[in-house]
Amino acid sequence: MSDKGRLAIYWAASCGGCEISILALNEKILDVANAFDIVLCPCIMDTKTRDVEKWPDRHVDVCLFNGGIRTSEQEYMARLLRQKCKVLVAFGSCAHEGCIPGLANLTCRQEIFETVYFETASTDNARHVIPLPETRSNGFHLALPVFYDTVRTLGQTVAVDYYLPGCPPEAPRIWDAVVAILEGKLPAPGSVIGAETTCCDECPRTRNEKKIKAFNRTWQIIPRTDTCLLEQGLLCCGPATRAGCGARCPEVNSPCIGCYGPNVGVEDFGARMITALASVIDSNDPDEIDRIIREGIPDPVGAFYRFSLAHSLLRRRALVPDAERLELPRPKIAAQA
Amino acid sequence: MTMKRISIDPITRLEGHGKIDIFLTPDGDVAETYLQIPELRGFERFCVGRVAEDMPNLTSRICGVCPEAHHMAASKALDALFHVDPPPTAKKLREMFYSIFYTTDHTTHFYALGGPDFIMGPDAPPEERNILGVIKKVGMEIAGRVLKMRRDGHNMIEMIGGRKVHPNWGLPGGVSRGINEEQRKEIERLGREAIDFGKFSIQLFNDIVLGNPDYVRLITSEAYTSRTYNMGTVDANNRVNFYDGMIRVVGPDGREHAKYDPKDYRDYIAEHVESWSYLKFPFLKRIGWKGFVDGVDSGIYKATPLSRLNAADGMATPLAQREYERMYEALGGKPINHTLATHWARLIELLYAAERWVELATDPEITGSEYRVLPTATPDEGVGSVEAPRGTLTHHYCTDERGILTRVNLIVGTTNNYAPINLSIKEAARSLIRKGTTVTEGLLNRIEMAFRAYDPCFGCATHYLPGKMPLTVVLRAPNGEVLQTIRREPPRWEAKSDS
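YS: structure for the whole thing
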């Protein structure tokens, strides 16, 4: 019997980038494997769902859960793993705040299905077939999970013990978190494990008095490499974004897009960004301010809520009241001895 | 008539999720199989309304294993959309970056995803059949080389493009930053080591796989053979190119079916829909959708490393070309229809990518200061295409005059392969499960090996990462006697349970 801890790594509505970031620990992955039995990681190991269901409750010490919750199956797995583990970490932006797939909260299932299965330029579907929760093919019964209208974060689905932000979390931050777990030096439950400063504090570019008359799209200017990108009119999310990545995007002349989520004390990322931008606009005339914003920021929600929409004060676009909605019973998890 | 069902849930050692259902006749033969992909994210919908220049960053979140592929296809689509031609330094930087990514990604697949089946054995205990088992078995000297390759590749990707996962670098007209001479030297140095690693990996494959008669029998068996069309991108000399070229499709008989500019993809490819999966099934329009069958009369095609090598006339670099010739000589000429040979083709591509990495790193223009030009035309519509490691990747954008997206179409690497993967699984299952067969865990893994050769990326394919579905297995003899029970309860989230 091993006296190592048990570690589970699971992916819901995600992209696999968090797993690759874990593999970017390189040799340190062997230190992780020495400290823990990795009991679940479908990317690289063959543990199946039924094996997970057989585990006793609280069988796993730590579960790193990445991905958002947007189907009934993912909701089931979130609840199952909450039951089977002692410490549940919302790992990465999707689990933390919904991430880019959370932008689907600007639309709904019906619109997504219409686009994907009827309208895209190469789809050949005159009979308007769509994926169904239950279907028969050649006489066989087949089922699919229900696709919800709304992307939810892990914390909106089950109780989460810690959040590790980033899209993905950078490997050194992952290692810091692993060490904190092994040494028992974690912050209060419910906390984000991360820095308490902004990306601006990590950025080496010089900052002067920021006053701009226009915002620029990234393809409109070739920015100077030494000065603040926001000062040059680019929509850099550094002022609102939690540090942790080392300001890598400004390093290659690209504005920060906010993937580490809001800094400590910031409840709504977009609201913080709007505040930051409002303070740099060089005008007191409301009409001029309006024009500057309209011309330079044609997609405010994409610019300000790129990663955080599902978790923000906005949450989602209002659903049309009489839109088709399947009210299905929430999945129940049986307790295991 | 009682139908029994075997489920493999979830499929593992790939990027993404899926579930395989195998339905048996009363005789215990395989009646039908299904690989269901249970989810969708809807990028084609929620990217509408976004600014087009966000697409390299938005679409890289389709997949964190191959974000560079989406980043590159998106950047090229932006070039087309804004009618801007990047300067030579920009194109060379992009292709060099892409070659580094290919070397790294193919390494990940062979050693961590598909390779363990060969290195540990298909019937090895599941706890050992993974990268950790491989490291223990081959020892730290070899394992160290694998870890070094991935570390070097990722470090170079980060140095050039900003981040190891989800770089932030591509723009219409070029890239956001070039490289200096010091960086170039490091890139060249590590590229030469990558070539050595490519040669080493092929040697390992020779020793462990081709040197084992059981594995050779496996590779050439009918269970893992399907005769479909092959798609890949080729340069002006019909050599494999990952970054740019014409798309070429060659039949299972070796004859060229089509060769086209990627922007004309809609004349050649369409996508079929079934109600039992969230993923669509591309097929060749001029042949048509004939269902899950292979042959020259079926529109099903593969877009994999093996298909790329089948669709081309050779490799553009010398060491890879030698290996290309050796593979075709060993397996009876072109085209090769043995799906498991894809693992071999992938290593030949790894070697080519490393050679191309060094070719571009030593190009005199690579440190040039013209890594970007600003577009001046009004954006309207553009198509960008690259070879993702897992298949031909096409991004198609329409915008208004401000560059706000009005329509998005994405045909993603693994999506091309969804129909042939289903076919490969059916063929493997039909071969392996017959009346009287004991269905072991190892046997089910051998069925999974039928998809693993494709190195699928179902997060890419559905522009979503699907989930898993627990199910139940009872295997009965023709007379009804229970031979074996592999218990997996009906899914708790399903509205009704299976009968």
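YS: worth flagging: Chain A has three domains: 5-101+150-192, 111-148, 199-311.
IM: good catch. Also Residues 72-84 of chain A form the longest helix (13 residues).
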